[in-house]
Design goal:
2 domains; 30% helix; Alpha-Beta Plaits
């Protein structure tokens, strides 16, 4: 499976939300779509799945235009952060109803997974009595019932306890290893780094950067507090390493091996490190 986006333009009234020149996604990978609130992540997911259709440009799945051939979306599943269930019906009713929409619903498997998530004893209660976490677990469980080859999750772990987050992370990795394509949005750095192969940064309506988190040569942001900023700055300048003064920190952008080399060289010259902060470059776009 392959998803291709070309010249995707969408506006709410006079406000332009999406202006994506091109993007491509392939099966067997997990992609994180990141960006600050309001940049259009949810709108992008809705355009991919025909929830909104009044856009210009193309969304193709295996070469077929989804707007012209919506049948291709039968292999796509989406979970939005504001997805609604039938609140006056039981969890089991919702599980059976939504899980069976595509056919082939395996109730024994669904109940087993519900037990693993700790909500099996609550399935006979009305959803209106569910807590936020229970509601989210049920929604995500429903999303895993289909045989969709492309899965899209908008802030899937919001409201979940740590144990449930770990369970879903492991299950999504299992799906990836079974050649599914997964697109996910999240504001939690740990979730993105634990799951994603690639991170795409959405800013001003377009993807402005892409990071391959499996690339051992990726560049990290290091913020370093040392005992002698002047001496350390000279060392960086002599080794042609750019840096910026961040108050008590000096910030450098380096590959991990290059950072280790500079660290060893600095220590050998009597420079002491009081604090070392390391983060992926994409994190700046989700704070």
């Amino acid at each position: 499976m392959r998803v291709q986006v070309a010249n995707l333009q969408f506006s709410y009234g006079t406000k332009k939300v999406l202006s994506i020149s091109n993007a491509e996604f392939e099966q067997g990978k997990i992609y994180a779509i990141v960006g600050r609130n309001g940049v259009g992540k949810t709108t992008f997911f809705k355009a991919l799945t025909n929830i909104i259709t009044n856009y210009s440009g193309q969304v193709l799945i295996n070469g077929e235009n989804v707007k012209q051939n919506p049948r291709v979306l039968s292999r796509v599943g989406i979970v939005l952060d504001d997805m609604e269930l039938y609140k006056n019906r039981t969890g089991l009713f919702n599980l059976r109803y939504f899980g069976g929409l595509r056919g082939g619903f395996d109730e024994a498997r669904a109940l087993k997974m519900a037990h693993e998530l700790g909500i099996s004893n609550d399935l006979n209660q009305k959803v209106s009595k569910y807590s936020l976490g229970m509601n989210k677990k049920l929604i995500l469980l429903i999303s895993l019932m289909s045989d969709a080859q492309i899965l899209i999750f908008d802030e899937p772990f919001r409201g979940l306890d740590r144990r449930s987050v770990e369970w879903f992370r492991n299950y999504l990795l299992y799906l990836k290893n079974n050649n599914r394509m997964i697109l996910i949005s999240s504001h939690v750095q740990e979730d993105i780094e634990a799951l994603s192969d690639n991170v795409l940064v959405l800013l001003n309506g377009d993807f402005v950067s892409e990071f391959d988190l499996r690339n051992q040569a990726q560049v990290f942001i290091y913020q370093l507090e040392v005992n002698d900023k002047g001496k350390f700055a000279i060392l960086l300048w002599e080794n042609r390493i750019g840096f910026s003064d961040q108050g008590k920190f000096i910030e450098v952008h380096l590959q991990e091996e290059k950072y280790k080399e500079i660290f060893r060289l600095a220590v050998s010259q009597g420079i002491e490190f009081y604090q070392i902060k390391k983060e992926s470059q994409f994190v700046r776009f989700v704070k």
